[in-house]
Amino acid sequence: MTSSSNGLARSALITSAIVLSSLKTGTMAETVIFFGLSIAVATKLVYINLRWTSASGGSAFCAIARAPYHDKMKIQYLGHSSFKISTGPVTIVTDPFDPGRVGLPYPKIQADLVLSSHDHFDHRYLEAVTGDSFVVSAPGEYEFKGVKVRGFPTFHDDKGGAERGKNTVYLFEAEGLVLCHLGDLGHLLDEKVVKEFEDLDVLFVPVGGFYTIGPAEASKIVSQLDSKIIIPMHYRVEGMAESFDELQPVMAFLGEMGIEQVEPKDELSLSSKSLPLEPEVVILKSVA
Hints:
Blueprint (H helix, E strand, L loop, with lengths): L16 E9 L2 E15 L2 E10 L5 E9 L4 E7 L2 E5 L4 E4 L4 H4 L6 E2 L2 E3 L13 E2 L3 E3 L3 E5 L2 E9 L10 E9 L2 E5 L9 H4 L7 E5 L8 H11 L3 E5 L16 H7 L11 E3 L9 E2 L7
Parallel strand pairs: 7-9, 8-10, 9-11, 15-16, 16-17, 17-19
Antiparallel strand pairs: 1-2, 2-3, 3-4, 5-6, 5-18, 6-7, 12-13, 13-14, 14-15
């Protein structure tokens, strides 16, 4: 596990010569030599320039093809406050937790980028993460392979951190989408911070209370931030350790939102074109 990163390779050039035999042109079989194959990878698009000529030298052809690079984001729930967010070239994992102490299973997960909101066992268990990951665990501005991250200092309680310390809220951009992970936020956000979160697409919000904001406060923050998709996290589920008995279930949050029922999804796939017109609460099943 390291905290170093490589810059995003925005273009690549591949030149090759490929010999294909017995390519039929009309009624004749010719050997065709392809040359000058170049691929330029730009943001979300792949451009392919292809040139070829026949061995007989009688013809030449140039074609340009364009295809999508990666146009969808996939979000999977790993339990508690942890999510796997697949963005094409980068896999992001938020707040990995210790399964032995939380009481829930947690998979060995590969990640390129890890966002940890604070240094507690249920939000920074790096032993569960494989790969040469770039770990972000403090406020500041970061960029990793095209994913832009901003960390905002907040608190784990409503007493300025006196009870449970500090918490980092992350705002990050990938695939043309803006996401916000509130970590173990313990208080309402002031207007100065709220202004930083305009045009939010996905909000991961703790809703269980006791250690974080509860259902009522979470509902207020949802109204403040006006995200298109709201994904609740950090609530009580069956099997959790006794230390989490005080957490409320997700239904308490749905009640505050005036929602009777939400059908849980296995995962969420989305792009900037598939976002709902009105705010939507999405509950994800844990894949662990």
